[in-house]
Design a protein that fits this description.
By secondary structure, the chain is of the alpha/beta class. It has 16 helices and 22 strands. Among the domains are: 39 residues, no CATH class; 97 residues, Sandwich (Immunoglobulin-like). β15 and β16 form a beta hairpin. α6 packs parallel to α8, α8 crosses α11 and α15 runs parallel beside α16. The protein starts with a helix and ends in a 5-residue tail after the last strand.
């Protein structure tokens, strides 16, 4: 047959249908070939990455204690989780505690919730809610952190009230849709045009509070629960995020908090706590983030204090007090830290889209990595944040012997595997970088994935199996894909490794081992998207003195527990 017949009719006209089908067939072939090559290239990239991945552990190097207090949480903690894990530290803190009046057992939420204070309690028992928290913590084996208000005003009433009633201050930008004290509306303290109401009476719903007012509460806590040395309140926090008072609590403290004000208030309240219970520890300044590590909100304040960063000047002043008075009134240098990435929501937010999830996993590097530029406005004008090494360096230079704490942090996505991976990374970093105390803000429910992150470190086998308490050198050639955190348990000498696969692919890697003689096969436990309701024990893994090879499931946390040989 003449091939032209397929393409042209006897009248020499093109056969369009045949030509169309040939074109479609050709296009399909090209598309299939393209997909094949893309798939092959992707697989090749994964293979290359896996071939370059390696892990190493040297049990003899970089050894230091891992504080059990890094696994703490803020209230309100899921009771089942708190009991199961015996959360080591539970913090009673947050914005509302700045205005807590122990005598009427109530506080004020400030700008967080229309400056609403009080509640339904017409017959308050002094200190009841804080006492219940301390008692619960003692039952669970948890240390208590209690926040002492330093702001100068505390809530006046135990019943519902609010700082900007519409009946007194007129129409406002927004009003509370749920609470109506005595039938009145509670405003947000801003006029309809958005300008702040600045002429309010600070004593509308608050009373003046000073160190003398707070002392009977500390005495009550000691009398009720014992001294810190006898199981009472172990740590007192000097208020909460004082640089935020001028915004959050502007109805009673509209002024920005200065260098001198924070120093003077801390001297007064911290010395009172130490005099009342010398065995207790004090924690501060507990401020909210990078901008106030650097400077106060008072214009020209840093320049007036020699250009020294606010946080460092604070440490220096606490040291000066001890040098002058012979009493240490600051035991923990504490700051809050929440990750920020431009145009995305990480901290205290749901898991988000793929872009957000990737950023969440990268952003843990801001805690330690000197090669990582923070992906926010902060990173554009500042050196790498290296938050924890920076804090430790400040303490070393400005007030040696002070411990480092982070009593508020949150990487978000607690309801997701992505959030669980980030939290696992953070806990490993806290141990490696020698944080002394940390409490997660917005803790997960017992059934949520991030709760399983804590179980991987604190109860991986359901029988009390714990990640070790002594850090050992552990390294990954690509921490962004496969993180490793190594430790040794004092109780039985076992080597415990937390290995986190942050990718959507199974990853295979060899691990080289030095300075450890395995006594038996390793136990392997995995938490992954394959089963979000349980930590799954895998087949035991053969290990020798040189190490082992293993495959880690996509988006997973693996704990490897290697028994130590009898000497």
């Amino acid at each position: 047959m003449n091939p032209r017949f397929l393409l042209q009719s006897p009248e020499n006209k093109p056969r369009w249908l045949v030509l169309f089908l040939l074109a479609v067939t050709a296009a399909f072939g090209i598309a299939v070939t393209t997909v094949y090559f893309k798939s092959a290239l992707a697989k090749l990239a994964v293979d290359i990455a896996q071939n370059s991945l390696s892990l190493s552990v040297d049990v003899t190097a970089d050894r230091h204690s891992i504080s059990p207090d890094i696994y703490g949480m803020n209230d309100v903690i899921d009771p089942a989780l708190a009991k199961e894990l015996a959360i080591p530290v539970a913090r009673w803190g947050g914005n509302q505690t700045s205005r807590y009046n122990w005598l009427v057992d109530s506080s004020n939420s400030g700008d967080d919730f229309f400056f609403v204070g009080g509640g339904d309690n017409k017959n308050p028992v002094p200190g009841d809610s804080s006492d219940k928290m301390v008692k619960t913590n003692r039952t669970n084996g948890s240390k208590s952190i209690v926040t002492i208000p330093m702001i100068g005003y505390v809530n006046k009433f135990s019943t519902w009230n609010c700082g900007f009633r519409v009946s007194k201050y007129g129409p406002q930008e927004k009003t509370n849709p749920y609470i109506f004290p005595e039938g009145d509306k509670c405003g947000n303290g801003k006029r309809p045009d958005g300008t702040a109401i600045a002429d309010n009476n600070r004593l509308d719903v608050s009373i003046v509070s000073d160190a003398a007012f707070q002392k009977p509460w500390v005495q009550h806590l000691v009398k009720t629960h014992g001294t810190a040395a006898k199981g009472g309140v172990q740590i007192y926090q000097m208020d909460n995020e004082p640089s935020g008072w001028g915004n959050t609590h502007r109805d009673v403290h509209p002024e920005a908090t200065s260098y001198d004000e924070l120093r003077d208030r801390t001297y007064q309240y911290a010395s009172m706590v130490k005099a009342t219970d010398p065995t207790a520890k004090v924690l501060g300044p507990s401020d909210f983030g990078w901008p106030v590590y650097v400077d106060s909100g008072v214009k020209g304040d840093r320049e007036k204090h020699g250009g020294i960063w606010f946080a460092r000047w604070y440490l220096q002043q606490m040291r000066a007090y001890e040098q002058q008075k012979g009493v240490r009134i600051l035991d923990y240098f504490d700051e809050h830290y929440y990750p920020v990435v431009d145009d995305l929501c990480l901290a205290n937010c749901p898991v988000g889209d793929a872009k957000t999830q990737s950023a969440r996993l990268r952003s843990t590097r801001s805690l330690w990595d000197s090669t990582y530029t923070d992906e926010s406005w902060i990173g554009k004008s500042n050196p790498p944040l290296t938050i924890i090494p920076r804090f430790r360096d400040w303490v070393k230079q400005d007030y040696p012997g002070t411990k480092v704490a982070i009593t508020e942090y949150n990487w978000g996505g607690v309801e997701s595997m992505n959030g669980a991976l980030a939290q696992a990374d953070v806990l490993g970093i806290f141990g490696r970088e020698q944080v002394d105390l940390a409490t997660l803000w917005g803790p997960p429910k017992s059934s949520e994935p991030t709760a399983y992150t804590f179980r991987m470190y604190m109860n991986y086998d359901g029988k009390g199996g714990k990640y070790g308490d002594t850090w050992v050198r552990s390294h990954s050639t690509d921490q962004g894909q496969l993180s490793i955190y190594g430790s040794q348990r004092t109780s039985d000498g076992a080597l415990t490794l937390v290995i986190i696969n942050k990718t959507s692919q199974n990853l295979t890697s060899n691990l080289s081992l030095k300075g450890f003689n395995p006594g038996a096969k390793a136990q392997v436990y995995t938490y992954s998207e394959a089963n979000l309701r349980a930590i799954v024990r895998q087949s035991d893994l053969a290990v020798n003195t040189a190490g082992f090879g293993a495959t880690y499931p996509a988006n997973s946390i693996t704990l490897v527990a290697i028994p130590k040989a009898n000497s």
